[in-house]
Write a structure and sequence with these properties.
The protein folds into 2 domains: 122 residues, no CATH class; 178 residues, 2-Layer Sandwich (Nucleotidyltransferase, domain 5). The protein is 40% helix and 17% strand. It has 13 helices and 10 strands. The strands form 3 sheets. Strands 6-5-4-7-8 form a 5-stranded mixed β-sheet, sandwiched between helices. Strands 1-2-3 form a 3-stranded antiparallel β-sheet, with helices on one face. Strands 9-10 form a two-stranded antiparallel ribbon. Helix 3 packs across helix 11.
């Protein structure tokens, strides 16, 4: 009897126990504290309090390396400032990192890890807050840009400024750009660097483009987009070489100037996000970060380690997690059409 026949003879629960045992044996689940200490050899550790590079070794704390800042005199570990700091159920949190790569739902993850769904939801968004840096790109060559309209969703909000909908069909939204939609700026280059940034409610403006992708595109880039007047005005102010297209007419110019890549990203995002059955606008930027990260690692041989690396190296992610509510309030205050 070969191994395949043995596996087929096992019941479902035994197979899961065997899978868990193999996962622990092969160490696919990352130990974030040890992993950060390993990365510290090749990545400079800055003080999470004052960002100073003048730090000194200061012993160990719970088996992890501890440091002391020569500027602000505060002590910290490698995980201070990251969303992994302050987690009590460390083993379960680390296992969730692996489960997120597998694409397991919140309900299934809660059942597997023996924690509540609300805890898994909180942990998920703490992890997603760590992916903000992966959504900031340095573009090269030709850059394609588009603005995407998504319906505003107040899913999970118990205090609404309008009457609640009994069913999705009760919602009446206008076609195209409207006050009921949020604009997302999508941009990519020809080697796969991609960003998706929540811009504002309603129609985008030149200022919202500068705020979202202004630091990612320089005069060395060539911009391709549709003929949106705000994109044209912004490109002119940045002195960019800019090629525009009318969606229902020409789609390509000189065989190299087109917006087919960014349109493909829009389509892939729609398919990817459908499995979540609706995303609250409050958390939209987190999910955009997640999608961009998934696109980035889809050919990686070690996706779990890639995610763990983003978690332990982003020392500002914990602060960004606690800013989710305030950023949503700022979004709601943006000028609408």
């Amino acid at each position: 009897m070969n191994i395949q026949e043995i596996l087929l003879s096992l019941d479902e629960s035994t197979k899961r126990e065997l899978l868990d045992a193999l996962s622990k044996e092969l160490a696919t689940q990352p130990e974030l504290g040890k992993y950060k200490d390993e990365l510290s050899i090749n990545h400079r550790t800055n003080c999470p309090h004052c960002k100073s590079e003048r730090i000194l070794g200061h012993g160990k704390f719970k088996g992890r390396l501890r440091y002391r800042c020569a500027e602000c005199k505060k002590t910290f570990t490698g995980l201070t400032g990251t969303t992994a700091s302050g987690i009590h159920k460390v083993a379960e949190f680390e296992q969730l990192v692996e489960l997120m790569i597998e694409g397991i739902s919140i309900r299934k993850a809660a059942s597997k890890l023996k924690v509540t769904m609300s805890t898994i939801f909180t942990w998920r968004h703490k992890i997603l807050a760590s992916l903000s840096e992966s959504n900031n790109q340095d573009f090269t060559g030709i850059v394609e840009c588009d603005d995407k309209q998504l319906n505003i969703s107040e899913k999970g909000n118990r205090v609404l400024e309008r009457e609640s909908f009994k069913r999705p069909s009760d919602r009446k939204t206008k076609r195209g750009v409207s006050n009921d939609k949020v604009s997302v700026v999508v941009a990519c280059d020809r080697i796969g660097n991609t960003t998706m940034q929540v811009a504002k409610i309603g129609r985008i403006e030149a200022d919202s483009l500068e705020k979202t992708i202004g630091n990612m595109i320089t005069k060395d880039n060539i911009l391709c987009s549709d003929s949106h007047p705000s994109i044209i005005a912004w490109a002119k102010s940045k002195e960019l070489e800019h090629h525009t297209f009318v969606a229902n007419k020409n789609h390509i110019k000189n065989k190299c100037y087109h917006v087919q890549h960014v349109n493909s990203i829009d389509n892939r995002y729609e398919r990817w996000v459908s499995k979540f059955y609706g995303i609250a606008t409050k958390y939209l930027q987190n999910y955009l970060n997640w999608f961009v990260f998934v696109e980035k690692i889809k050919k990686s041989l070690q996706p779990v380690k890639d995610l763990a690396k983003e978690i332990v190296l982003n020392i500002e992610s914990k602060a960004k997690y606690f800013q989710i509510a305030s950023r949503y309030k700022e979004l709601k205050l943006t000028t609408v059409i």
